[in-house]
Amino acid sequence: MRLGPAALRGALADEVERVIDGLLAGPLPEAVARSIVRHRVVNRMVDEVLETAEPGSKVDGDPLEQAVERIVAMPAFKRALQETLSSPEVRDALVSTTTGFGEELVDAVRARTRRLDARLGTRESRSAEFGGVASRGIALVVDALLAQLAFVVLGASVSLVAWLAGASRPGVLGHVLAGAGWLLVVGAYFGAFWSSTGRTPGMHLVGVRVHAADGRAPGGLRSLVRCAGLVISILTLGIGFLPALVDRRRRALPDLLAGTVVVQEEP
User: Fold this and answer.
1) Residue of 164, 214, 221, 160 lying closest to 187 (CA atoms)
2) In the chain, what's the furthest Cα-to-Cα distance?
């Protein structure tokens, strides 16, 4: 039977495809790769690239390294690299990776502190519903660092303004004002977070929240009373935190004074 031109081309294409598949499935690709390595095809290509370099250009060192340096220095390569790094896909991948790492870190901190809370205190005070001594301690350290940082920045700004105004070095009055300023910054830090969201950044890290008897965030006055209890507990070298080891709801002196309680947040 005589085939038309179209049918003949289709049959030839199918036959060529079968031949190519057979060649690629056999030992031919490995043999070609060995031949390329044996005859130094890549090196000869690199040498050819280097031979086309401008007169006076540096060609010392490894030829492959020199070729790579020339390619990297090309404006087209730099533009392609910049477009790739600034693409939405790369940005989304970086954001996703960073967010995932941050979430894993927070989960690890919360799990560790809750295990420590479960080991500290009496049997009556080990309820998983309330925040324990370990959670409170880690949250307090984080918040103290943040409050101190805010005070240092504010104090440096005030000192700079006073120096520009020609004020003399601070004496006893200056130290008293600095101490009062520290108390003001600490009170504003804890009072603002407790009265608004019921938790500070440190408490958010360990997964606890403070609220009043009605389940809502403590008001401004109650937050200030709790802050005063916190300062007293610190000044007494931590004695004010000891009631949390025996109290059924893990309340420390700040909670007893302000009528608040610290609870664990749901995972």
Assistant:
1) 221
2) 115
Alpha helices by DSSP H, 26-87: 28-38, 41-51, 63-72, 75-85
Count CB atoms within 10 A of the CB of residue 258.
Answer: 24
Tokens 């977070």 belong to residue: 193
**Residue 72 near residue 81, CB atoms below 8 Å:** no
Contact, 63 vs 47, CB < 8 A? yes
Q: How far apart are CA 34 and CA 138, in angstroms?
A: 61
Question: Is there a contact between 235 and 189 (Cβ–Cβ < 8 Å)?
Answer: no
Q: What is the rounded distance in angstroms from the CA atom of residue 110 to the CA atom of residue 118? A: 12
Instruction: Locate the DSSP E strands across the chain.
Output: 208-211, 261-264
Report residue 143 CA to chain centroid gap: 18
- How many Cα atoms are found within 13 Å in the side-chain-facing hemisphere of 11? 7
Distances (CA, A) of 129 to 171, 176, 199: 49, 42, 16
Q: What is the pLDDT of residues 94-151, one digit of tens each?
A: 666 666 767 888 888 888 888 888 888 777 777 778 998 899 999 999 999 999 999 9
